[in-house]
Design brief:
With about 300 residues, this protein is α/β, with parallel strands linked by helices. It contains twelve helices and 15 strands.
């Protein structure tokens, strides 16, 4: 990630216009100038840039004004190194997610659903037609099939055909070594900055795919591998349209459509006690079974 410190002579505004910085720390004490006035110019020259304002003024009104002009967060002076690390990690996670979504959107733009799923197999033709029909629904969708049958590609086509095509799309693989990391990737985390020294003002919050995909579609790949302790959180999202960030009290509303894929027999997983029955019922509103490749000459 490319970072700039914006306080002459560290970095000039001409350099910012010429280089694709991901993160800029902007000190508001720029001689006789007010750094707030430069935020719109920086955002215009490099819209991907995230700006962290550095100031000795700690007030809610000031924070709101900085956010309205395009800042992401702010640090009050004097601040500690751990606070800088936390806010930088938060921006890095968000930037990675944005880059991933940008790549997926480019793939979708090049995807012609009809051409991509050309087939002479009647069962696959029915799958494509069903996917087109359910794309106009807001209901959650479960796509079952063997590995390599095109479950993820079909999910992306559903997004391209749906009313949410203009909304965000992201994919999360539920098969993960760390349940904690997967929880943050899904729901985000409120970063606790309660430590000796001043707080960072707005507080950096690690972005999650659920809030990012609000009014869009979130693809959960291999949902049968979702850790048991996270399954109630997903049930809450599907049934109540609400979620909680890690280490944060209080629920947040969510308007995200879930498409889940699985190679696992979820009914058998329920019988074995590795998958919740209420989660299966919430996911299995509309189901599509993709035929294996050996049956699709």
């Amino acid at each position: 990630m490319c970072i700039a410190l914006c306080n002459p002579p560290v970095c000039t505004f001409e350099e910012i216009a010429q280089h694709p910085f991901d993160l800029i720390f902007l000190d508001l004490l720029l001689g006789v100038d007010n750094g707030l006035d430069y935020i719109p110019q920086i955002v215009r020259d490099n819209p991907w840039t995230r700006i962290i304002v550095i100031t000795a003024i700690a007030s809610v009104d000031f924070a709101l004004e900085a956010m309205k002009r395009g800042a992401t967060d702010y640090l009050t002076k004097p601040f500690e190194v751990p606070q800088v690390i936390l806010v930088t990690q938060s921006v890095a996670r968000r930037r990675q997610l944005e880059q991933r979504v940008q790549t997926l959107q480019a793939e979708l733009a090049a995807l012609d659903g009809t051409t991509d799923f050309q087939t002479a197999t009647p069962s696959m033709m029915q799958v494509v037609e069903t996917a087109r029909q359910v794309s106009r629904s807001q209901a959650n969708l479960l796509i079952r099939g063997e590995r390599g049958t095109g479950k993820g590609r079909l999910a992306r086509a559903v997004h391209a055909w749906s009313d949410q095509a203009a909304g965000p799309f992201a994919a999360v693989i539920c098969r993960h070594e760390s349940a904690d990391e997967l929880e943050i990737e899904l729901f985000g985390a409120a970063v606790n900055l309660s430590m000796p020294g001043p707080a960072s003002g707005l507080g950096a919050a690690q972005s999650g795919s659920v809030p990012f995909c609000d009014k869009g579609i979130l693809l959960l790949e291999e949902v049968g591998q979702l850790p048991m302790r996270l399954q109630p959180r997903l049930v809450q999202l599907l049934e109540d349209r609400e979620y909680e960030r890690q280490d944060e009290s209080g629920r947040r509303p969510s308007d995200v459509r879930i498409i889940a894929t699985t190679t696992t027999d979820l009914r058998s997983a329920v019988a074995q006690g590795t998958f919740r029955e209420d989660l299966l019922l919430a996911l299995d509103v509309i189901a599509i079974e993709i035929p294996p490749l050996r049956k699709r000459p």
